[in-house]
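Work package 3, deliverable 3.1, input record:
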Amino acid sequence: MADLHPDSPYMPHRHPEPGATFEWDEEQRRELDRILERYPTKQAALLPVLHLAQRKVGWLPPHVIVKVSETLGLTPAWVFGVVTFYNMYNQKPRGKYFLQVCTNLSCMLRDAYDIYDHLCSRLRVKPGHNTEDGKFTVLEVECLGSCNTAPVVQVNDDYHENMTIEKIDDLIETLP
Amino acid sequence: MTEPIRVLTRNIDEPDSASIDTYLRTGGYKALEKALSMKPAELIDMVKASELRGRGGAGFPTGMKWGFVPQDSGKPVYLLCNADEAEPGTFKDRLIIEKDPHLMIEGMIISAYAIGSGPMSYIYIRGEFAYGAKVLEKALAEAREKGFLGKNILGSGFDHDVTVHRGAGAYICGEETGLIESLEGKRGEPRVKPPFPAVVGVFGAPTVVNNVETIACVTLIVEKGPDWFRSIGVEKNTGPKLYCVSGHVKKPGVYEFPMTVNLKELIVDHCGGTASGLPIKAVIPGGGSAPILKPDEIDIPLTFDAVQKAGSMLGSAAIMVMDESACIVECVWRLVKFFAHESCGQCTPCREGCNWMESVLHRLETGQGRQEDADLLLDMSDNIGGKSLCALGDAAIGPVISGVQKFRDEFLYHVEHKSCLPGTKRYRRLDMPVGAH
């Protein structure tokens, strides 16, 4: 059999827990109802529902995608197609702290690549991969819309602006 | 010299500027009261009279856009606020969202009433703006509590509510039909036009998509009148405008001016010139999609029309400044890399072309360029531009064509010397086969 492409849904690393299932908990169900009443179709709720699932699990493994598709009456293939289109839906587990370094023009002109290189070498991690202890993931991302405070590093949901190598070192040391 | 104004940004320095109490204290929601006492058609005429042009990039007259909505389609009309701010260099909408969310919420309710919108409109905010989404949710809850949203708003009989819809990281969802597809729970692939969204938009219903700043301007127009709005700026380029300045400048940030401000003046006098003190090498006046201007071309007023006449576009008014230390090949490469990454993949010229341009620029930058590469880039641009469904392909070739045409010597230097121009700095460290830095 030909080698699978690393992004293939059949790659073994995409199924770290074969046979795993996913159920919405009580709080998520309430949130689901709240989301669904805001849209005229169930399908329109797909993006927020994927965010909801990812907030709980940290990424979107196949069994979660299947659950989302059942919840909204869509096919798993449809949901998978949507997941792979958007950057923010994680298709593999991410570290506890997801360090996203903007390197687009305005950030690049203010030395964002130095910070990016420094993070990769300091944490000894390849871009897009997790550190061995699962604490960090480093990724180069496109414009974060904070060019006046470049360079910017997004850590999970938070922006850290006007970054320098010293500031990113301090940050990494203080993150629990 | 044009002086900065504080109209759209009037509240941002107030303590707790995002709260409804601050907004009400400074005269907030008075425009809504006024709007609800008028007929929707009168409001559309008012916006037409103000000559407001869309602030998202294309500069299309907002009143005209609203006028295209058929009122007898038998379907609800939808208003979508485009807060998917992702154009490289743009950060103006984020300021309004985070610092003065009620200005845009009030504008949305007024706009929704004017276009005869149904019971729900949506703010499509880019997924990365998690804080902005939180601020908006809180502001919407405050507005509901005070009766500005919900059933029978201010006793007018108009029912309306607003939902914050978070995107998930895709630049193309800022394109209005891409945004509509995404809101429907699909991949954000732009649609074939026509039909235009005003006729068949989201959920098959007539739809108006307006940028955050445009909607904020609507509040001001209703509050102070179209004549006041027109008195700021020049004919066909009216009203206050937010300019985002970033890159090699001393004081980057959002600046508010009438559209009479001069680009050179803005960079040199208001932003303090370059941070390094080096001369300016290049300026991008309208975000990553806009063609590059050379220093001798920047003595122009920042109106939609004047910037277009200078061979570029005002776009989202995102001004990126590069000083003499920047390598143009690397800057163009970085922008093209962005477009290659963000192409939705629907149309072959854009999907393949952007990636191809990126690899040609990469090989130039790494000293493996070929003599014919500059012309090859122009030829590729010629085969991408105008050959795809949306404007992303056209956007990608903006910096490429202008870069090659205006800095051809620098491109050729990379081929002949296998390195960047002396005195320029490479920002990205590469394992280069030949040593340049």
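Chain A has a mean pLDDT of 91.
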